Amino acid sequence: AVLLGCGGVGRAVLRIATSGAETSAFSFLAVLDSSGGIICDGDVALVKAVLAHKEAGHSLASFTGHGKQGLPKDDVVAQIKAQSLKFAVIDTTAADTVEELVSFGASAVVLANKKPAADASAENYKKLVSAATFRHESTVGAGTPILATVRRLRAGLDNPTRIEGCMSGTLGFVCSGLDTGKPLSEVVREAKALGYTEPDPRDDLSGTDVQRKALILARSCGLDHLEMKDVPVEPLYPPSMGPENMDVDAFMANLGSLDTDMASRVAAAKERGEVLRYCGTVDVAAGKASVGLVAVKSDSPLGRLQGADNMFVIHSSIYAERPLVLQGAGAGNECTAIGVLADLKEVI
């Protein structure tokens, strides 16, 4: 395999793949970061040295050791192509890499990076999927096998008709806090202090990450004509509090202005025996997807969900009266890496 990206997830992939008894199950031809890369040719000791170099905070361009040195990315790619081998490309970056992934000429593509599967146009998405064996489990549920489940249901001709999912651990934590009667501002500040949010909490509260996941899920259900613009999303703050209008400190200072409206929504839901959950919904039968706060029955699977776990509720012909429910960690470098390696094992 060729690994693109040596951030948290990429390093976890290398760490797990080289630490167990089955290290021979995963052979890395090359490892690349934004600075360059190393031709590894399946040398486990070299891969471990590359991992140590990255964990020390260095770029791959500065690597020397085991008779190897860092090379420009183009040189690495050229050497890989010259070998005419069958290989998989693993993308753990955060870049828009559709064209690059296709240009590698790999026999398989494994994604942890959501952008090639979501930000790409419908046309480019279809091009990527048709160019190679394609797996991208970790883009939606990290190690929780939602896409594999959808794939198996469709293979068995029990096509999902509707999927509702809590796909953000951060927003799950926020909704659980709202359940207890805490104001929105207090819950967001608590989440930020605990490191559950991005440095700018609006990156989570905007719903864009869930929007990407919902689109990927929709495309995996056969709605591959949809694009990001076709998936409406409800941010948890108004445009007037967006990044273009105020910085992070001002946003945090003004969070309290959102408390009254949110408390009213929470109270209205409670009177109906419901709670609020931030969900991505894929209505396969209607050919659409949407993202935002929804009210669900308190005793439903989504209503009982607490904390940062992800949950997916799948409806189909077989799972009509009692839907199929998947729950598990939806984030974390190791959890995501396990999903990547499981995908890789399937395609090599």
UniProtKB/TrEMBL annotation:
Gene3D superfamilies according to UniProt: Dihydrodipicolinate Reductase, domain 2 (3.30.360.10), NAD(P)-binding Rossmann-like Domain (3.40.50.720)
Binding site residues for NADPH: 114
Cofactor(s) it depends on: a metal cation
Keywords: Amino-acid biosynthesis, Methionine biosynthesis, NADP, Oxidoreductase, Threonine biosynthesis
Statement: the UniProt record of this protein carries the keyword Amino-acid biosynthesis: yes
Coiled-coil region: none
Reactions mediated catalytically: L-homoserine + NADP(+) = L-aspartate 4-semialdehyde + NADPH + H(+)
Residues noted as binding L-homoserine in the record, renumbered to the chain: 198
A Pfam family per the record: Homoserine_dh
E.C. number: 1.1.1.3
Gene Ontology MF terms: homoserine dehydrogenase activity
Residues that, per the record, bind NADP(+): 5-10
InterPro entries (alphabetical): Bifunc_Aspkin/hSer_DH, HDH_cat, HDH_CS, HDH_short, NAD(P)-bd_dom_sf
Homoserine dehydrogenase catalytic domain ranges (all copies): 145-344
Pathway named in the protein's UniProt entry: Amino-acid biosynthesis; L-methionine biosynthesis via de novo pathway; L-homoserine from L-aspartate: step 3/3; Amino-acid biosynthesis; L-threonine biosynthesis; L-threonine from L-aspartate: step 3/5
Record keyword Oxidoreductase present: yes
GO BP: methionine biosynthetic process; threonine biosynthetic process
Active site: 213
Recorded family membership: Belongs to the homoserine dehydrogenase family.
Stored PANTHER family: HOMOSERINE DEHYDROGENASE, PTHR43070
Name of protein: Homoserine dehydrogenase
Originating organism: Pycnococcus provasolii
